[in-house]
């Protein structure tokens, strides 16, 4: 019987457009359901993801949704294809319609038969996808300004905060804060206008936390990298580059997004965060980086749209931007061949040759292994790697392959710097 189950699409293979996108990104729709994103964009009369998200945020002048209902409907359309056979709505025969799995309300099927055949696969992820289904709607509250919610000052030193548990223990009871969002107008609007019933309050509280954790995961990962490299933000101002910053990080980014670093290193000498990536989305953070030091005790964010090695040539080498003390990248996906050759290779060589402390995260152990292999082949000196204690708690669906086990942002990391030590300079080991 197994042979009758439609084969799951092969793993993510980047196209020209998806080279710099992560696996969960919009364009990865293209990789397994040919033309799906094109279909959506055409039906919305939009030319790219940026326009789409801008419209969702209500920022687009030319294009906007008629009302919330219309907007949530359009967002839902991006998930409408048969999980069993990949059929799009337009390929259905007359009288057919895509029906949702009633358990997760997150995947669609063209027929009962397709659903039945898919169940052995889908049942492994259905429970997780229920959370994905809630989160992808609740995430809208980060565009309305309800998320991230404000955090409290740290009562422990950075070194003492080793994982989420430690961080949460400093925050006290989160429920008053979460309940304010729960009873707010935006939350009401959300469930009045999207096409599923409002989950119970406890589900929503947990979802709010998961989305908050994704936001904080990035900041805390940077702080962890600072500590792992023993950089001292009290000795001198730090410049941190986020290489390959994507729309995920730069969409709707605010000047205060890395302020958790102020709680982590109170009274520091100044921390500049520069987001660099071809997918950087226009907004208040898109402003020139600093040539030297940022304001003391403050985090200064700027952003540059372009590839990292270009940024280096254009700005760092010409001393228009300060040289980094640390480079961090969130799931660059340089294990995807094309991305490596076209985008990441010059950057990796540059980081290696300038001996820059570098810290990159991955979505999964599989991605970690592939990335380690690549760095090894480039003779990059890997300092350590493993699970990130500040992994995002929000499950991320591999959008075009809903039956793949959901992944988590920043769940693994690699820390590297410089060239692998030469053979002759190594201490003789007992094996030699
Ligand atoms: Zn089907
Ligand atoms: Zn399901």
From TrEMBL:
InterPro entries: Mito_gene_expr_regulator, Mss51-like_C, Znf_MYND
Segments forming domain MYND-type: 82-126
PROSITE patterns per record: ZF_MYND_1 (PS01360), ZF_MYND_2 (PS50865)
Pfam families, A to Z: MSS51_C, zf-MYND
A GO MF label: zinc ion binding
SUPFAM superfamilies xrefs: HIT/MYND zinc finger-like (SSF144232)
Assigned keywords, A-Z: Metal-binding, Zinc, Zinc-finger
Protein name: MYND-type domain-containing protein
């Amino acid at each position: 019987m197994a042979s009758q189950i439609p084969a799951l699409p092969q793993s993510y293979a980047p196209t020209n457009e998806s080279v710099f996108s992560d696996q969960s990104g919009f364009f990865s729709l293209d990789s397994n359901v040919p033309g799906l994103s094109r279909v959506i964009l055409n039906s919305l009369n939009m030319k790219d993801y940026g326009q789409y998200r801008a419209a969702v945020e209500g920022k687009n002048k030319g294009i906007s949704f008629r009302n919330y209902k219309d907007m949530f409907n359009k967002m839902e359309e991006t998930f409408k294809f048969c999980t069993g056979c990949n059929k799009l709505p337009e390929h259905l025969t007359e009288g057919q319609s895509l029906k949702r799995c009633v358990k997760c309300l997150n995947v669609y099927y063209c027929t009962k038969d397709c659903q039945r055949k898919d169940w052995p696969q889908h049942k492994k992820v259905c429970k997780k996808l229920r959370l994905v289904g809630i989160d992808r709607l609740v995430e809208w509250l980060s565009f309305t300004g309800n998320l991230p919610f404000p955090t409290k000052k740290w009562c422990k030193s950075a070194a003492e905060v080793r994982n989420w548990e430690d961080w949460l223990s400093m925050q006290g009871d989160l429920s008053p804060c979460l309940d304010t969002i729960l009873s707010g107008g935006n939350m009401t609007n959300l469930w009045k206008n999207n096409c599923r019933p409002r989950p119970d309050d406890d589900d929503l509280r947990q979802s709010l936390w998961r989305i908050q954790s994704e936001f904080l995961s990035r900041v805390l990962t940077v702080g962890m990298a600072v500590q792992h490299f023993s950089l001292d933000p009290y000795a001198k101002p730090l410049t941190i580059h986020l290489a390959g910053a994507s729309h995920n990080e730069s969409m709707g980014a605010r000047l205060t997004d890395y302020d958790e670093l102020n709680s982590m290193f109170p009274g520091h000498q100044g921390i500049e965060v520069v987001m660099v990536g071809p997918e950087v989305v226009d907004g208040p953070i898109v402003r020139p980086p600093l040539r030297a030091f940022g304001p003391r005790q403050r985090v200064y964010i700027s952003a540059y749209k372009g590839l990292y090695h270009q940024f280096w040539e254009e700005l760092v080498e010409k001393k228009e931007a300060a040289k980094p003390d640390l480079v961090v990248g969130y799931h660059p996906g340089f294990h995807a061949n094309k991305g490596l050759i076209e985008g990441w290779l010059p950057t990796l060589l540059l980081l290696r040759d300038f001996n820059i402390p570098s810290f990159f995260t991955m979505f999964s152990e599989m991605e970690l292994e592939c990335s380690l292999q690549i760095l090894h082949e480039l003779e990059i000196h890997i300092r350590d790697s493993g699970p990130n204690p500040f992994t995002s708690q929000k499950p991320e669906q591999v959008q075009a392959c809903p039956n793949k086990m959901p992944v988590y942002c920043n769940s693994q990391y690699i820390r590297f710097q410089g060239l692998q030590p030469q053979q002759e300079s190594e201490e003789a080991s007992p094996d030699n």
